[in-house]
Amino acid sequence: MVKVYEINGVTPVVHPTAYVHPSAVLIGDVIVGPRCYIGPLASLRGDFGRLIMEEGANLQDTCVMHGFPGADTVVEQDGHIGHGAVLHGCRIGRNALVGMNSVVMDNAVIGAESIVAAMSFVKAGMEVPQRSLVVGSPAKVARALRDDEIQWKSAGTAQYQELAVRSMRTMRETEALTELPAERPRMAWDSALPLHLHKNASA
User: Fold this and answer.
1) Which InterPro entries has this protein been placed in (predicted)?
2) What burial class does residue 185 get, using C-beta atoms within 10 Å of its C-beta: 0-12 exposed, 13-18 middle, 19+ buried?
3) Given 2.160.10.10, 3.40.190.10, 3.40.1190.10, 1.10.10.10, which CATH number is that of 1-202?
4) Is residue 201 very low, low, confident or very high in pLDDT (cuts 50, 70, 90)?
5) Domain limits, the chain
6) Residue 181 burial (C-beta neighbours within 10 Å; 0-12, 13-18, 19+)
7) pLDDT of residue 149
8) How far apart are CA 144 and CA 134, in angstroms?
9) What is the C-alpha to C-alpha distance for residues 169 and 149, in angstroms, rounded to an integer?
10) CA–CA dist 133, 90 (Å, integer)
């Protein structure tokens, strides 16, 4: 059962094709669109500003979304938010990626098809042009992204869209096994390479 809380008479909205892990927490003015994936222990706390996940976006394990009163925090269509990232009062553009443990602050705008590298700190009010690689703390635009890097990002997001479907169909709470089976299966599905390996493979 998804942990959803009403506050001040405002209740989160979750599209029936979205998957929200039961350990995630949604409070108040939260809107989760079609085909989204919300990972374990994510916190979407819409007790001040509105939080919006547009179609096909994902918010992974232990991510936090929050914002000031009157402000919207938005992940646009096919946005991809890596493990442990924090989004506060910002806008993540269409098909953009925010890397693991990054922080994007108030009124920052990440342009469409951009990538914010892991562990980056995007200052309040920063505007990142489309198709940019953003790196560092404080974050700076390092360069424009290549077509193959954007294709890599899109492939990874498609996997999370598939994971939303697979999770709804097959995930269930159960008891751990006490012994390793002799013929233990592996997860049988195509997987994207990490970006540094993808670059080597495409070189």
Assistant:
1) Hexapep (IPR001451), PaaY (IPR011974), Transf_Hexapept/Carb_Anhydrase (IPR050484), Trimer_LpxA-like_sf (IPR011004)
2) exposed
3) 2.160.10.10
4) low
5) 1-202
6) exposed
7) 96
8) 9
9) 31
10) 17
Q: Within its chain, how far is the Cα of 109 from the centroid?
A: 15
pTM above 0.90, yes or no: yes
| Average of per-residue pLDDT values in the chain | 94
At which residue do the structure tokens 């995007």 appear? Answer: 122
Residue with tokens 């703390």: 137
Determine the 3-state secondary structure of 199 from DSSP. Answer: helix
Average pLDDT for residues 61-86, to the nearest whole number? 98
Q: Which residues contact 5 (CB under 8 A, 6 or more apart)?
A: 12, 25, 26, 27, 28
Confidence grade of residue 203 (pLDDT, cut at 50, 70, 90):
very low
CA–CA separation, 19 and 35 (whole Å)? 7
Q: What is the CA radius of gyration of the chain?
A: 17
pLDDT in tens, 76-97: 999 999 999 999 999 999 999 9
pLDDT of residue 191: 58
Alpha helices per DSSP H over the chain:
147-170, 195-202
**Cα 38 from Cα 71, distance rounded (Å):** 21
**3-class SS of residue 104:** strand
Burial of 199 per CB tally in 10 Å (0-12, 13-18, 19+):
middle
